Every structure is written in C-alpha cells, then in structure tokens.
Amino acid sequence: MKEQWLKLKLQFFNDAGTEEAVSDENVETEPTEVTQKAEELSESQMKLVNERVNEEMARRTKEMRQQIQDELNEKQKEADKLRKMNAEQKHQYELEKAEKERDDYKQQLESYKMRQEAMAMFNEAGMQAP
C-alpha cells in the first residue's frame, strides 16, 4: 500500500538569523525516500503478518480437526458398545445415560437456585454482589 505525502514548501529559519534557501529538489526527494522506506517496511510487515495469520489458521484448523476426530471416535466407541449389547443391556445402558443427564440438569438447576438466593440475600443486606 503506497502512502501519499502532502508536498509542502516550508520556510525554515536559522537561529543565527540568516535564511537558507531550500531548493525544490531536496523537498521532493525526501518524501520519495521516506515513501520507499515505508513501502519496504510495510512489505516486510505484511510478510510477518501473513506468516502469523497462516500459523494461527493452521493451529486453529488442527485444533478443530482434532476436536472433530475426538467426537467421532467417542461416537464410534459408543456405537460399537451398543452393537455388542443385547436388547436388555441396551435398555439398561440407555436408562443409565438418561439418569446421568437428569442428574446433570438437576445439579445445574440447584446451582442456579443457590445463585439467585445469594443475590437476594445480598440485595436485602444492601450489598452489591461481586
């Protein structure tokens, strides 16, 4: 990306009181040199940014693939386990699974109720909850 510089003709003052003439050539070459350095810097920065973005994308892609693979393996193990069971065992397994899920939901509900009760107690005491 090229940066555009506003070319200004500024008058510089010397402390001794003598004015030095500033040629147009010096004023014009300075911004182009700065612009070229900025382009080189921005290109190197762009390479660095691109490398970092690519590394981050590769890392996240790897994590997502690993997560999907883990979920797939877990479901495959459960399917193999169910395939080996007879009807009574399948029924018992499904019942245990449902009970575990129910217990998890009960625990979440109790936690929510306790949080609400604590908030009410803080409000009654005129305190602000953290």
Folded structure, characterized:
The chain is mainly alpha-helical. The chain has a domain at 86-130. It is 76% helix and 0% strand. The protein has helices at 24-84, 87-124. Keywords: Coiled coil.
Indicate the proportion of strand residues: under 5%
- Strand pairing plus helix content: what structural class? mainly alpha
What is Rg? 35 Å
What is the helix content? over 70%
Secondary-structure topology with pairs:
Layout: H1 24-84, H2 87-124
Keywords:
130 residues; mainly alpha; Gp46; coiled coil; Phage capsid protein
Question: TL;DR of this structure?
Answer:
By secondary structure, the protein is mostly helical. The protein has helices spanning 24-84, 87-124.
